[in-house]
């Protein structure tokens, strides 16, 4: 209970995932769940839906609570969902749902709820959107103290971030290295050996060697890119085949 009191002294409203993330090193999730009712209550709908709110605080009466509102990201595009599934199964096989309160990775569920304050902490553009947005004179039942248009802008930004992350997977460098395992590199010629030995003596030879290294790196990047594209195409074909089979069975 002491840890929870300190947490709610820090800020009045917390999402469930944010609480568990902050206290996971101190308490098991079941222990936190058991005692949280001692310090906070919960809304079941509205701008602070499923968040825990410190007793005595009503965010509907306090404009300063606007950044503690939730934002729910709903991913509806079928092709994007397939790509996300491919991404997670390829680079994080066996991973189930993991809390990601600051939107630092690729979503593991179709619908994920964040608090605006946590999104702003992890993304300067979202922080700018919040800072530039107008504030309503009343608390709307759905959008709280912010206008509806703000949430459309946040969603658009987050979808763009997801797209960028899907194009630049974290295992790219590892894949580049493994792609060349078992591929024989051409043996150095005698002239190349001499060039390496005399590299400190001839500035022109330095430039030649750098050019060769850059060319070699470009070839590796190109090879890795083709390899990634082929893997993604193969996975897409398998998923589409499975979907067709499921449709036939239905």
How would you describe this protein?
The chain is mainly alpha-helical. The strands form 2 sheets. The chain has a 3-stranded antiparallel sheet with strand order 1-3-2. Helix 5 crosses helix 6. The protein is globular, with a radius of gyration of 26 Å.
Please mark out the parts with pLDDT under 50 across 5 or more consecutive residues, or reply none: 173-208
Number of strands: 5
Rg calc = 26 Å
In whole angstroms, the N-to-C terminal distance is 51 Å
β content, as a range?
Answer: 5-15%
Helix count? 10
Percentage of residues assigned to helices: 40-55%
Largest sheet: spatial strand order: 1-3-2
- SSE string, helices as H and strands as E: HEHHEEEHEHHHHHH
Q: Compute the average pLDDT.
A: 78
Shape: globular
The main sheet comes to: 3 strands, antiparallel
Looking at how many chains there are and whether they match, the oligomeric state comes to single chain
Structural class given helices, strands, pairing? Answer: mainly alpha
Outline the fold blueprint.
Blueprint: H1 2-10, E1 13-15, H2 16-23, H3 29-35, E2 40-42, E3 51-54, E4 70-74, H4 78-91, E5 111-115, H5 116-122, H6 124-132, H7 148-167, H8 172-179, H9 190-197, H10 203-249
Antiparallel strand pairs: 1-3, 2-3, 4-5
Summary of the model, kept short:
The protein is mostly helical. The protein contains ten helices and five strands, in the order H-E-H-H-E-E-E-H-E-H-H-H-H-H-H. The chain starts with a helix and ends with a helix.
What are the salient characteristics of this protein?
250 residues; mainly alpha; 3-stranded antiparallel β-sheet; two-stranded antiparallel ribbon; 10 helices
């Amino acid at each position: 209970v002491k840890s929870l009191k300190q947490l709610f002294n820090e800020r009045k409203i917390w999402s469930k995932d944010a609480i568990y993330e902050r206290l996971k090193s101190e308490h098991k999730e079941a222990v936190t769940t058991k005692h949280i009712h001692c310090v906070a209550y919960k809304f079941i709908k509205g701008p602070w839906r499923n968040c825990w709110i410190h007793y005595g605080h009503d965010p509907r009466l306090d404009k300063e609570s606007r950044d503690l509102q939730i934002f729910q990201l709903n991913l509806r595009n079928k092709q994007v969902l397939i790509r996300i599934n491919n991404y997670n199964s390829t680079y994080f096989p066996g991973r189930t749902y993991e809390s990601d309160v600051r939107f630092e990775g690729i979503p593991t569920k179709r619908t994920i709820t964040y608090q605006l304050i946590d999104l702003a902490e992890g993304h300067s553009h979202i922080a700018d959107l919040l800072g530039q947005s107008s504030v309503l004179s009343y608390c709307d039942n759905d959008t709280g103290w912010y206008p509806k248009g703000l949430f459309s802008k946040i969603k658009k930004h987050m979808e763009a971030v997801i797209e960028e992350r899907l194009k630049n997977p974290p295992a790219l460098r590892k894949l580049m290295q493994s792609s060349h395992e078992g591929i024989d590199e051409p043996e150095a010629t005698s002239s190349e050996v001499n060039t390496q030995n005399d590299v400190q003596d001839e500035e022109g030879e330095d430039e030649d060697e750098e050019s060769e290294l850059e060319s070699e790196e470009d070839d590796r990047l190109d090879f890795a890119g083709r390899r990634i594209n082929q893997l993604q195409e193969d996975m897409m074909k398998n998923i589409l085949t499975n979907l067709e089979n499921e449709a036939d069975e239905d």
